[in-house]
Amino acid sequence: MRERKKGATIAGRKLRPESLMMSYGYDPKLSEGAVKSPIFQTSTFVFESAEAGKAFFEVAYGLREQGQGEALGLIYSRLNNPDLEILEDRLTLWDDAEACAVFQSGMAAIATALLAYVRPGDVLLHSEPLYGGSDHLVKRFFPELKVEPVGFLAGTPPEELETSLRQRVGGRHVSAVLIETPANPTNALVDIATVSSCAARVGRPGDSPVVMVDNTFLGPLWQHPLEHGADLVVYSATKFLGGHSDVIAGACLGSQRVLAPVRALRTFLGTMADPWTGWLLLRSLETLSMRMTAQMKNARNVAEFLNNHPKVRRVYYLDLLRSEDPTYAIYRRQCLAPGSVISFDLDGGEAEAFRFLNHLKLVKLAVSLGGTESLAEHPASMTHADVPAAEQRRMGVGPAMVRLSVGVEHYEDIITDLGQALEAV
Ligand SMILES: *Cc1c(COP(=O)(O)O)cnc(C)c1O
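That is the input. Now the predicted structure with pyridoxal-5'-phosphate docked in place:
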């Protein structure tokens, strides 16, 4: 696996990520001809000589530039490990990113990336709603470090956004922007390009904040934030990338330059993934495109069923956006497909939502999303329980809302299950 970035073209034709997920970044010759990468379950690596060890550290700690053709040496599994390096190389293909760093969780990726870029006295801009964990980190933890979060609702029209941010930022230094689009759990959209340019104008003159996009809901198949002006893309790899609800992991991608401080801080916080997690994700990536495509097709059918059901008041799913909707243009420009997470409001309140959830049979009542099995949960009392009720309402999260992650089961069976649970309400 020391020989990377090869074999990505045949007869001058660039291969698609689907075709490279089984081989890219791995050289069987270095592992006894094994067709699959072994799990390099080792904490440390033997240096051929003291000089080689010294050279590896010089590059790893940025004491000098990597020489032409000089391979980055394996040192210690908190810095690098073959399973993680192969995984990182493969992940770059989907987002067409220069570099990637993988983490032990999505929160580890988000926290490490933010900590690499914000400093006391800075303003951190963020969209709303955010995943519950990110919401807590941004609004409760960062203020203790004297980093002030300034939020804006997903879907705010551009003129209003600029006026409101100018007022609240008041010329202070904006060092980072965290955008989640589509937002968890409402599927509300944020225009990455508009927010990026606006964020650079509302702070101190000359500010150029790092724009991070949490691409967990649609990526890496259906949305590529780096193409729309983001500097970093972050993932909860626990969701679609892992895809089988059996591993917790995260990833952060971007240019070498922007990712470098994040990767460096990962080494010192120790938030990297372990070799076994890396290996599991390599296995998952081989079927990523098939899984996400099947889930999205299922979700289209499920959303249509819910949208026509008399006990469902409103369905939040990108495929159902109408051209009159102010965010429809963002959807067309920024997303390639609607994905497979659907939220919907039942006619009623928490009691009706709970009754529905308690009657599901095939669909499991659990948080998380993106796995092969369909899962349903109640955002107001579960994933977003930490967000005060008044704020939940402001972000469009009500007591009658259910979030559904559609899996790869037969869609007619999912619909049968949802139908009988709705009957029980
Ligand atoms: C799950 C999730 C996270 C957190 O990821 P973990 O892997 O659970 O740490 C962050 N953002 C979004 C949008 C998520 O759905």
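The mean pLDDT is 95.
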